[in-house]
């Protein structure tokens, strides 16, 4: 099985796993391109062998980041387009599905940005956590509408993704104040909206996002600050329709402490969860390219898009 996976797919999987490729939409696009590359490079001589190669490639990609649902949703979209009965026909199916997925992805973020911008007023200050291209699309659209937006940006330890957010907001002309994560509550009184992205949204409206999002949401609700989640529909987690829970990825200890420092501290046990779960009661609105929804209504959209559940097209038949 392993030898059928193209080197480009393995390289993409490694880059997703090590977070050289990060962000749900970027991960999804990379996965679609990788399957396209597998299809165009395949020398399979039967439709069954071709499908087996694509399933193996999809499994290699799927196993890298268990929490980022955009990844399996991208794989589902591309693989379910395989309907032809010849190798060349199947190859064309995958190429067309991958290209269509990436085109829809590009349009979706722009459409989401317009929906989210309508919730932001001229003169608003937002607080961000981590780095979300969906959240930034809302700010960019608001700025293009002529609104003056300012931002308080949390660094988001341990990988400091907030630094990326700060840089991109600066490039939009948005004044930025960068704060350490533990200072968030202190500055919430100066904030009109908390604006975050999502790596997955469950059927009950729970939001799975970078660790620290849940605590920020609790503090924001206590201060009466609205919490807006920007999430394309590819972030919706269809497995949760059947009661499935979302796996929370645990990252490497070395993201927090190097081996020497760990030894100096007496080798304590280190936990480094990448994500946490924000209950729907702390979220005011989930903004998608299909419009904005209260979290308790997201299940209606999910059923419309995915039905009552899914099967994994990369599983062995």
Structural features, described:
With 317 residues, the protein is an alpha/beta fold. The chain contains 11 helices and 10 strands. The protein has 2 domains: 2-111, Four Helix Bundle (Hemerythrin (Met), subunit A), CATH 1.20.120.420; 120-306, Translation initiation factor eif-2b, domain 2 (Rossmann fold). A 7-stranded mixed beta sheet has the order 3-2-1-4-7-9-10, with helices on both faces. Strands 5-6-8 form a 3-stranded antiparallel beta sheet, covered by helices on one side. The radius of gyration is 20 Å and the shape is globular. It is an enzyme of class 5 (isomerase). Belongs to the eIF-2B alpha/beta/delta subunits family. R15P isomerase subfamily. Catalyzes the isomerization of ribose 1,5-bisphosphate (R15P) to ribulose 1,5-bisphosphate (RuBP). GO terms for molecular function: ribose 1,5-bisphosphate isomerase activity; S-methyl-5-thioribose-1-phosphate isomerase activity; translation initiation factor activity.
SSE inventory with pairings:
Elements: H1 7-17, H2 24-41, H3 47-62, H4 70-79, H5 87-117, E1 125-128, H6 133-144, E2 150-154, H7 161-172, E3 176-179, H8 184-187, E4 193-196, E5 200-201, E6 207-210, H9 213-223, E7 227-230, H10 259-264, E8 275-278, E9 285-288, E10 291-293, H11 298-306
Parallel strand pairs: 1-2, 1-4, 2-3, 4-7, 7-9
Antiparallel strand pairs: 5-6, 6-8, 9-10
Helix pairs in contact: 1-2, 1-3, 2-3, 2-4, 2-5, 3-4, 4-5, 5-6, 6-7
């Amino acid at each position: 099985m392993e030898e059928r996976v193209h080197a480009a797919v393995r390289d993409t999987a490694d880059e997703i796993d090590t977070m050289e490729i990060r962000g749900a939409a970027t991960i999804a696009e990379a996965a679609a391109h990788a399957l396209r590359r597998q299809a165009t490079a395949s020398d399979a001589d039967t439709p069954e062998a071709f499908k087996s190669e694509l399933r193996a490639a999809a499994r290699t990609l799927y196993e890298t980041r268990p929490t980022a649902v955009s990844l399996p949703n991208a794989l589902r979209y591309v693989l379910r387009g395989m309907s032809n009965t010849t190798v060349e026909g199947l190859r064309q199916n995958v190429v067309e599905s991958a290209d269509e997925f990436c085109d829809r992805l590009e349009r979706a973020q722009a459409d989401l940005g317009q929906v989210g911008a309508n919730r932001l007023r001229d003169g608003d200050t937002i607080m961000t956590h981590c780095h979300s291209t969906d959240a930034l699309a809302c700010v960019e659209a608001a700025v293009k509408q002529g609104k003056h937006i300012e931002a308080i940006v949390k660094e988001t330890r341990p990988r400091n993704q907030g630094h990326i957010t700060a840089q991109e907001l600066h490039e939009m002309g948005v004044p930025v104040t960068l704060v350490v994560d533990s200072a968030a509550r202190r500055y919430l009184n100066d904030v009109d909206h908390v604006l975050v992205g999502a790596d997955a949204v469950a059927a009950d409206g729970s939001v799975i996002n970078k660790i620290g999002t849940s605590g920020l949401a609790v503090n924001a609700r206590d201060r009466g600050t609205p919490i807006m989640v920007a999430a394309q529909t590819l972030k919706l987690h269809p497995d949760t329709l059947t009661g499935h829970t979302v796996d929370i990825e645990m990252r490497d200890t070395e993201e927090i402490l190097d081996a020497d420092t760990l030894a100096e501290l007496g080798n304590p046990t280190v936990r480094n969860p990448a994500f946490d779960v924000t209950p729907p009661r702390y979220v005011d609105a989930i903004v998608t390219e299909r419009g904005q929804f209260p979290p308790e209504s997201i299940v209606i959209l999910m059923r419309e898009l995915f039905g009552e559940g899914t099967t994994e097209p990369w599983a062995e038949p």
